[in-house]
Amino acid sequence: MLSEVLFLLCCLSCVFSKDPDIEEEEIAAYNFMAILNRKTEEMLNKYQQTEWDYETNLTDENLQRKLEVGAEMAKFQKEAWQQVISFDWRRFSDYYLRRQFFLYSVLGDGALPPEKYKKLKKIIGDMENIFSTAKICAYNETQKCDLALNPDITNIMSTSRNEEELKHVWLAWRDAVGPKCRALFEEYVQLSNEAARLNNFTDTSEYWLNGYEDPHFKDKIQNIYEQLKPLYLQLHAYVRFKLRQKYGDVVSETGPIPAHLLGDIMAQNWREIADFTLPFPNVGDNDLTQELIDQNYTAIQIARTAEDFFKSLNLTEMPDSFWEKSIFTKSEDKPMVCMASSWDFSDGKDFRVKLCMHITLTDFTVTHHEMGHIEYYLHYKNLPVKFRGGANDGFHEAVGDLISLSVLSTKHLRQIGLINTDIDHRVDMNNLYKVGLHKIMFLPFSYLMELWRWDIFSGKTKPEDYNCKWWELREKYQGVESPVDRSEEDFDPASKYHIISSTPYLRYFIALILQFQFHRTLCEKAGQYDPISHYSHLHNCDIYQSREAGNALKRMLAMGASRPWPDALEALTGQREMDATAILEYFQPLHEWLKNENKKNGAYVGWESSKRVCTRTKKELET
Ligand code: X8Z
Ligand code: ZN
């Protein structure tokens, strides 16, 4: 609907342009844009097919094909860009036409000379291959050396409570990926910066931030981070206290927490250690993964459950081809990229997810996350191609997570039979604590991922300091430390997919804040939240079946990237700024509980410096 309106506006205002000097050019530009958009869709579709082929079957042949088509696409984009900037588009009267020109006017990596472009893409492809095919040996079983990140390593990190085993797996994964990626990564930084400079940015970090259309964006992010820090510190203190009870002196009373004990290979989501750290142990049915298994959920059923939620909000059902072409579980015979992703093939028809799903609560949540991306694609599929994106990339990441906030409320879990106990405030608190382990603990991680890269791209952090800088930030922001000393012969950031695949990460921080803002608005529309009395608390709200809430969300999704993101935020929430008050309000009961509990336990809040060292060479560690 919005797309038709946009086209019409575009058309009419071109024809009735007010400025006679520009009128003729604007009409020509309108026709030019229509043709360019069609060709762009075709080119993107062709390229995305080759990307899909490579990521679902990591062969040299598929990489070659992807690089070839990528080069063809870059050539096409460069030629189009040259034509785009030859128009005096800033003077056009039609807002949407101007905005399309504006979005086309930044060329991106295609600005590199063809050989360098290919090299950049090859380096990233090679790192993805190293990451996705890396295998490690099992603890104390030197013969069993076929453990992959998904599912083996992920499983061990979340379920093993053997400190030595966790340490072994944590280290082996980093040894398997880091050193092999280091030189490639250094070259990637050079080439990526070169591309950014050809686009008139100072470096890649400035290029990445450009999408937010706000020169003060970094400061605003820092400000939000500061507002949430007190809550993070309380949760961190509580967890460390519990970990000491479990693992003893491996965890110090006042230092950073060893990163291998937090249930996740990156220590970015601590939900998996909920079982032995719960505020109220043995109250309620807490193992939701076990519930899913006991109830014989399959991967497809999980996806259907997610779809059902979206449909209940009057959002769009998944097209048949989605079910036919998506990959839900890991292929047995082909090496593939297992990192979950969603795909828009730019033809208005073909939308897919690629998942290596296992029957766990994490993958249940990831499936909702990915389907949120598909909903966005479906709602803006008829807009001009440059408007087919989130209002900013954080909006795109927030949609599925927003749905999970309702899905994982005790109210909804009871409704779908994953919680079977009676209503009890302790069950609620346990549940809120688990959401906190997921969401609040992710906050500094998502921030430092980009703090690290910003300084690398700007040259502030030199290659000889890459790894030690990483650990400096991990300690400063997350209060975690490596379980062993590190050196610059290691390259631990490469153990994270988004680093080696060149995927910006600030989007997840933004999404974390936005999803609670969206949630608060939609809960109000669903009649489950009264902003004056705060009577029904945000964490108990479930927007399931609320068409009111769904229709409001639909309107925002259908705007795509057609306007700067504050307009989209305002359309939904009435606010034009990102704002931490919703997430703080959501967790307020947990925050209060933690402050009391930490006081009662005498738990130290904050952390002193780590005793771990990070040196240039491994040899220095021995001396
Ligand atoms: O990469 C993802 C999604 C795909 S866009 C599964 N996420 C980040 C991660 O796993 O590191 C979602 C949360 C953060
Ligand atoms: Zn995502």
UniProtKB/TrEMBL annotation:
Cofactor: Zn(2+)
Swiss-Prot/TrEMBL keywords: Carboxypeptidase, Disulfide bond, Glycoprotein, Hydrolase, Metal-binding, Metalloprotease, Protease, Signal, Zinc
Protein name, UniProt field: Angiotensin-converting enzyme
Gene Ontology cellular-component annotations: extracellular space; plasma membrane
PANTHER family attached to this UniProt entry: ANGIOTENSIN-CONVERTING ENZYME, ANGIOTENSIN-CONVERTING ENZYME-RELATED
Comment on bound cofactor: Binds 1 zinc ion per subunit.
Entry's EC annotation: 3.4.-.-
Organism per entry: Callosobruchus maculatus (Southern cowpea weevil)
Residues binding chloride: Y212, R507
Residues annotated to bind Zn(2+) 2: H369, H373, E397
Enzyme active site: E370 (proton acceptor 2), E370 (proton acceptor 1), H498 (proton donor 1), H498 (proton donor 2)
Binding residues annotated for Zn(2+) 1, in chain numbering: H369, H373, E397
Glycan-linked positions: N57, N140
Signal sequence interval, chain numbering: 1-17
Enzyme class, spelled out: hydrolase
Disulfide bond positions: C137-C145, C338-C356, C523-C541
Family indicated by similarity: Belongs to the peptidase M2 family.
Parts of the chain that traverse the membrane: none
Gene Ontology BP terms: proteolysis
GO molecular function terms attached to this record: carboxypeptidase activity; metal ion binding; metallopeptidase activity; peptidyl-dipeptidase activity
Record has Kinase as a keyword: no
Lineage, broadest ranks: Eukaryota, Metazoa, Ecdysozoa, Arthropoda, Hexapoda
